[in-house]
Specification:
Elements lengths: L5 H17 L3 H6 L3 H12 L94
């Protein structure tokens, strides 16, 4: 059995995001998310949050992930402060308690997302689809 320090995994994933962004122009970043970043995110959002170390928060501050595909992802209590999630697919995602302060969610698919307790202050939600997202009440 391997002894894996989960804090090191988070640091390595963050470093992967940062290194990917250093070597691609802004235009390339806005076109696509590289396969390695998408794979890392898929693992990250499918993890069992109850197995996270205590006082551990996913730190994705200021990452640039336009049009990323993470439907039904578990980003509960993640720090996405000032993240660029323009056009991201977050359909059904768990963003309960997430820090989305000043995040760019323009055109993001947030249908059915759990936004209870999320900090959306100063965020850009223009053209975002918030249909059936919580805490937004259903239309009557």
């Amino acid at each position: 059995m391997f002894n894996i320090d989960k804090r090191q995994i988070w640091k390595q994933i963050k470093a992967l995001f940062e290194s990917d962004q250093k070597y691609h122009s802004l235009e390339e970043q806005l076109k696509t998310i590289t396969a390695d970043i998408q794979a890392a995110l898929t693992v990250l959002v499918r993890r069992k949050i109850e197995q996270d170390p205590p006082v551990n928060q996913i730190d994705l501050r200021k990452v640039k992930l336009p049009r990323v595909e993470i439907p039904k992802g578990n980003l509960r209590e993640a720090n996405l402060n000032e993240a660029n999630l323009n056009g991201a697919n977050l359909n059904g995602a768990n963003l309960n308690g997430a820090n989305l302060w000043a995040a760019n969610l323009r055109g993001a698919d947030l249908r059915g997302a759990d936004l209870r307790g999320a900090d959306l202050r100063e965020g850009n939600l223009r053209e975002a689809n918030l249909n059936k997202a919580t805490p937004f009440p259903p239309k009557k």
